[in-house]
Amino acid sequence: MFHHPEVDRTVFSTGQFSKFFADRAGETAITHMIFFIAAVIIAMGVVAVLSVNVQSLTGATYVGNKVLSDQIRTDITIINDPEIVPYNSYEKRYTFYAKNTGVSELNTEFITILVDGMLIEPSDVQSSVMDGDVVWRPGDVLVVNVTMSSALSHGDHRVQITAENGKSGSMSFITRT
């Protein structure tokens, strides 16, 4: 069918393969095959690296979207009367009432309290849901008792209650001590 004048076809029938490999067409085919195999191996390596990166990005996006979704569904409102915040002078404890006005349940173990921008240590915070439940459900009121080293000075102050997902409610209040 195909006739190549440089290739002697009797080489195959007589077992003289060295003549075939001395031929330039054979060298070119072998070179192309080596380059093709190398390209396939490199492509497989690139695909492996990229797939790991894509999986990592997908996971991070999922977590970020979940946190954002939780924040959108969470809302906290401090429902104290800002003029009269309960204070127990014997225990140096202020009591705040926070209502879960969002649509998601919150864990009371992971709330953070700031008074006038200062973080209150978890050991100085006692919180409980008014109905005695462990989970702070939508519509429930959380009683937060904050023990201070001393009474707050007379004047304006601010309290912030932050949920586990970063969403917070705050209120300015006045002390008259």
Reported by name, the CATH topology of the largest domain is: Immunoglobulin-like
Structural class: alpha+beta
The CATH architecture classification of the largest domain is Sandwich
Helix content: 25-40%
Instruction: Report on the biggest sheet.
Output: 5 strands, antiparallel
Reading the helices and strands in chain order gives HHHEEEEEEEEEEE
The count of DSSP E runs of length 2 or more, i.e. the number of strands, is: 11
Low-confidence stretches: none
* Rg result: 37 Å
Highest-level CATH class of the largest domain? Mainly Beta
**How many domains would you count in the coordinates?**
2
How many DSSP helices?
3
Can you describe what's shown?
It contains three helices and eleven strands. It is an alpha+beta fold and 177 residues long. It folds into two domains: 63 residues; 100 residues, Immunoglobulin-like, CATH 2.60.40. The strands form three sheets. Strands 1, 2, 3, 7 and 9 form a five-stranded antiparallel sheet that branches. The protein has a four-stranded antiparallel sheet with strand order 6-5-10-11, with no helix packed on it. Strands 4-8 form a two-stranded antiparallel sheet.
